[in-house]
Amino acid sequence: VRKTLQGFRHVDMDTGLSNRRALLERLTDMLYLTQRYKRPLSLVVFHVCNHDGLSGNLDPDDLSQCYEELADQLQLAQRASDLAARISADTFALMLPETPEDGAVIVADRMSETLQRRNSIDATIQISSGVVSSEDGEIEARDMIAAAEALARPE
């Protein structure tokens, strides 16, 4: 029972994706490997720019369905080594080991386009993304997440 409960600490219960805690732990481990082996690691953060508009115009069930579909698209796109996570109500992330910055930008652009156009409730979703990469692991996981979030939130 305890092991099952601990597993829930790492899952976003609304989408089934990993949560911020799981991303932080896995990113910390991957940054250590990046530092040791000098292999690239990228993080893409996707921000739903019109979250407030969506939550004001959609009933809660439709909003939940919309975010579940975003999560499904991220899960379909991830490789076995990647990690998709929901890190806040309107923000998702995709950790991409063995992916340099230029590859992560391509993934970010393609996923942003996919996430904006695919939903079953005909809601217009506006997505922005931020990419942060490391070739040497000389960044803390929290700082990497914060930097990608800042880039994904155009103000």
Task: Summarize this structure as a short list of keywords or feature phrases.
6 helices, 155 residues, 5-stranded mixed beta sheet, alpha+beta, 20% strand
Short description:
By secondary structure, this protein is an alpha+beta fold.
Secondary structure: elements and pairs:
Layout: H1 2-8, E1 18-19, H2 20-37, E2 41-48, H3 51-57, H4 60-77, E3 83-88, E4 91-97, H5 101-117, E5 127-134, H6 141-152
Parallel strand pairs: 1-3
Antiparallel strand pairs: 2-4, 2-5, 3-4
Describe the structure.
Helix content is 51%, strand content 20%. The chain is built from six helices and five strands, in the order H-E-H-E-H-H-E-E-H-E-H. It has helices spanning 2-8, 20-37, 51-57, 60-77, 101-117, 141-152; strands at residues 18-19, 41-48, 83-88, 91-97, 127-134. A five-stranded mixed β-sheet has the order 1-3-4-2-5, with helices on both faces. Strand 3 (83-88) and strand 4 (91-97) form a beta hairpin. The longest helix has 18 residues, at 20-37. It is globular. 32% of the residues are buried.
Count every helix, treating DSSP H or I runs of 4 or more residues as helices.
6
Residue runs with pLDDT of under 50 for 5 or more positions? none
Order of helices and strands: HEHEHHEEHEH
| Counted beta strands | 5
Task: Tell me the strand percentage band.
Answer: 15-25%
Which sequence of strands runs across the widest sheet?
A: 1-3-4-2-5
N/C terminus separation: 44 Å
Helix content: 40-55%
* Biggest beta-sheet profile: 5 strands, mixed
Report the radius of gyration as a whole number of Å: 15 Å
